[in-house]
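Researcher: Quick test of sequence recovery. Tokens follow.
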């Protein structure tokens, strides 16, 4: 058969060898070997590979071709495998004719018969020389690679590892091989890692880029981050026979990610409130223990104390000594206050100052100029025996020694060209010292906190000013007199939105009447509070003119329009007056009637003496500031003991922002029995106001009282001069009946002058009414619309002194107009009993 091939002539040199690829089976060296091991066939390709001519090989035992003897048992096993029709493949070392040795990929076919003999076809090719070079390169790469590589057996025991992995763990190779990871590196995430390895062995699915934190035995104090991948190792049959895992030190990348996450999280965690001290504490709480073991936030006195002078601006152009002389600092050390502090140790025992205590700390050898010009200061290793610390900060030096404080970063806190304070980060339990890379996140955290502190500082000043302004503009007393029992409650808006423009008022009017007012300026802050003050003043002025409610609101509407136009024309960048709502009611205790009008305001609530609750259906009226739309007046009866409530929308628009539901809740809260008026007012606000509070809340409650008939005296007379004497006598008798004899002379004179004026300037009947309330009220009504005028008479004038005398004898006097004409009224103080 052709398997022997052509035979070269004796003495002919062997042809040169040509490297072949292992997959090039068409040119493989081939021989036929009998079952006894004798070579019975030799091909030309076999001659090319080994240099032997057919004559030198055929008939001889194939064993002489092997570079090393084979195990007979193994050879017998291969033969049995081939006789079973399976065949065999493997690697063999063979000897060439020139004595050199080569490695051959060998294949043995299933047994067949040739000329009655059992034979095997043996073929093979030299393992490529390129692979031998690649293997050496691979060995060098695996040994010196910056990636740690290890091979584990199915029991997860080390079989092989490179130098890099040995260096990562710090455990010698001989102590690892044959042992599991958990046995040689206890304390790592060994349970989780070995669970991943078992999963790879069971499924054959690799795990890529699993990160965990660890350390090296060479530097166990500093934490390191590793990225690992786990790959299954399989044999030719695809069976997983082991595991290869690779480890890469990603500490730098992990630290960078952690620092970035730290800064990002700081922005979300610091500055949740507009409170300076709370913001400082949030910075300290956030940094412990994520960044430091102990953090102190110290703020300058003007920043930490709202009532102190303004903060220290960077743009002043003053040197440190000039700032000392200017009084910004009492010495070369700044006046600060501990605003926030946090520690991994409960109670912050490292601190020598508590939150709220005065502090003058700056890191030695710096002075106050460090807060102006200084950059973040890194002290990687803190020496408690350093003479600077022992001399300038002896108490802190002792704390450093006692609690093992070993590394510090100090960062001046500045924002918007304003010095705010100093933040100090310290490590103690964490054995790793601060590194230069830690300065940047420290700076960023403090910078973000500084902006929040400055915002809180600015807000605190504005909010305090607005609240002070608003409280100064609200009434300090509510003069209900004998006509009304009055209680009120005012709650400023939540800090998020600031103070608003809600107000209320109780204004005594002539004739024992009382005006009740409640209003709400749109917007928040100082602008709204200032507008509220102007509107309240305007209401007082208009109320003194005794205008009816609808006319008063019309004048108020004009005022709001003018205020808006003034701001538009001035072009100032402020909060514009967007409008306001108002409700104005006048209660007359003589008639027990209440006349009211509203401008876009919620309707009043009335609790009748029998407990029935009613929200009065008043014409809504447009809000103030729209202009050109009319207001309407409504009138209702309020019997003795009725309760009327005026309020702003902040009381009824709770969390659900449903005014109707809020009004229902208000009615239910006012139905409570057995409470004083003040207690009822406080209870209603407590029940209805949501937390946090989005808007100002104002509530004004008034319980009515009737002015009984025995406190009222009236008389109608014709407009004739002869009635004056009778009026004086009638007045004297009435005052005597009330026990007010002390007022007889002055009251007779007042009534005489007023009736005389009415007789002189008016026509029709004249009505005189005396009201005994908290004051004595005298009213003279006539049919004239002409207003009397107070003037100073000359010495030669025969008249003109009547109203001047009236003004001198009364507490106050005035005129109000009615549908029939006008009423001139006066008020006199009642005599003090026992005086």
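Model:
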């Amino acid at each position: 058969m052709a398997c022997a091939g052509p035979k070269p002539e004796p003495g002919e040199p062997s042809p040169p060898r040509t490297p072949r690829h292992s997959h090039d089976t068409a040119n493989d060296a081939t021989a036929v070997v009998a079952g006894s091991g004798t070579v019975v066939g030799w091909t030309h390709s076999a001659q090319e590979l080994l240099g032997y001519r057919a004559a030198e090989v055929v008939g001889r035992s194939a064993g002489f071709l092997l570079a090393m003897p084979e195990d007979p048992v193994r050879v017998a096993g291969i033969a049995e495998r081939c006789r079973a029709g399976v065949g065999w493949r493997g690697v063999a070392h063979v000897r060439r004719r020139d004595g050199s040795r080569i490695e051959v990929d060998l294949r043995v076919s299933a047994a067949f018969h040739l000329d009655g003999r059992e034979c095997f076809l043996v073929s093979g090719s030299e393992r490529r020389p390129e692979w031998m070079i690649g293997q050496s390169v691979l060995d060098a790469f695996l040994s010196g690679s910056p990636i740690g590589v290890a091979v584990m057996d199915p029991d997860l025991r080390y079989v092989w590892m490179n130098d890099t992995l040995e260096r990562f763990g710090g455990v010698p190779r001989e102590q690892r091989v044959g042992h599991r990871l958990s046995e040689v590196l206890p304390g790592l995430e060994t349970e989780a890692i070995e669970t991943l390895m078992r999963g790879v062995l069971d499924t054959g699915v690799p795990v890529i880029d699993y990160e965990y934190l660890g350390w090296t035995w060479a530097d166990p104090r500093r934490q390191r981050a590793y990225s690992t991948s786990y790959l299954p190792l399989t044999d030719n049959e695809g069976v997983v026979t082991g595991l290869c895992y690779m480890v890469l030190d990603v500490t730098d990348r992990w630290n960078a990610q952690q620092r970035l996450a730290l800064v990002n999280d700081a922005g979300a965690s610091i500055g949740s409130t507009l409170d300076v001290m709370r913001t400082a504490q949030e910075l300290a709480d956030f940094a412990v223990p994520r960044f430091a073991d102990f953090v102190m936030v110290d703020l300058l006195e003007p920043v930490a104390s709202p009532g102190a002078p303004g903060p220290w601006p960077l743009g002043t152009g003053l040197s440190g000594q000039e700032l000392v002389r200017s009084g910004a600092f009492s010495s070369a050390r700044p006046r600060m206050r501990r605003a926030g502090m946090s520690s991994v140790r409960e109670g912050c025992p490292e601190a020598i100052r508590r939150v709220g205590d005065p502090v003058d700390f700056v890191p030695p050898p710096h002075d106050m100029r460090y807060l102006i010009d200084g950059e973040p200061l890194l002290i990687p290793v803190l020496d408690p025996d350093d003479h600077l610390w022992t001399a300038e900060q002896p108490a802190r030096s002792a704390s450093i020694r006692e609690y093992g404080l070993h590394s510090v970063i100090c960062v001046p806190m500045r924002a918007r060209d304003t010095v705010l304070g100093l933040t100090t980060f310290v490590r103690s339990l964490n054995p790793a010292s601060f590194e230069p890379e830690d300065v940047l996140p420290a700076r960023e955290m403090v910078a973000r906190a500084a902006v929040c502190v400055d915002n809180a500082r600015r807000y605190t000043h504005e909010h305090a000013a607005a609240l002070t302004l608003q409280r100064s503009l609200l009434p300090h007393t509510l003069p209900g007199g004998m006509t009304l029992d009055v209680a009120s409650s005012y709650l400023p808006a939540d800090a998020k939105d600031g103070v608003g423009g809600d107000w209320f008022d109780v204004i005594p009017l002539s004739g024992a009447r009382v005006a009740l007012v409640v209003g709400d300026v749109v917007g928040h802050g100082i602008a709204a509070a200032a507008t509220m003050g102007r509107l309240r003043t305007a209401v007082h002025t208009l109320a003194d003119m005794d205008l009816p409610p609808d006319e008063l609101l019309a004048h108020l509407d004009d005022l709001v329009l003018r205020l808006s136009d003034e701001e538009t024309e001035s072009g100032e960048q402020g909060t514009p007056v967007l409008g306001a709502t108002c409700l104005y009611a006048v209660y007359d205790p003589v008639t027990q009637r209440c006349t009211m009008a509203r401008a876009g305001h919620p309707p009043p609530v009335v609790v009748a003496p029998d407990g029935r609750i009613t929200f009065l259906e008043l014409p809504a009226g447009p809000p103030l500031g729209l202009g050109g739309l009319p207001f309407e007046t409504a009138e209702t009866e309020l019997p003795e003991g009725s309760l009327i409530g005026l309020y702003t929308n902040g009381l009824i628009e709770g969390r659900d922002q449903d005014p109707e539901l809020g009004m229902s809740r208000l009615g239910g809260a006012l139905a409570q029995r057995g409470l004083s008026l003040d207690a009822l007012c406080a209870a209603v606000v407590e029940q209805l106001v949501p937390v946090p509070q989005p808007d100002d809340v104002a509530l004004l409650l008034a319980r009515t009282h009737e002015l009984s008939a025995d406190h009222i005296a009236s008389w109608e007379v014709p407009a004739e001069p002869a009635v004056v004497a009778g009026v004086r006598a009638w007045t004297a008798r009435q005052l005597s009946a009330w026990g007010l004899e002390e007022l007889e002379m002055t009251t007779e004179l007042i009534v005489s002058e007023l009736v005389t004026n009415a007789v002189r300037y008016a026509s029709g009947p004249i009505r005189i009414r005396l009201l005994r309330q908290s004051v004595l009220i005298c009213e003279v009504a006539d049919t004239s619309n002409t207003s009397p005028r107070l003037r100073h008479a000359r010495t030669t004038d025969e008249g003109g002194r009547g109203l001047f005398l009236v003004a001198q004898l009364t507490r106050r006097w005035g005129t109000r107009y009615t549908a029939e004409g006008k009423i001139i009224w006066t008020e006199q103080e009642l005599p003090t009993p026992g005086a």
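The chain has 23 helices and 33 strands.
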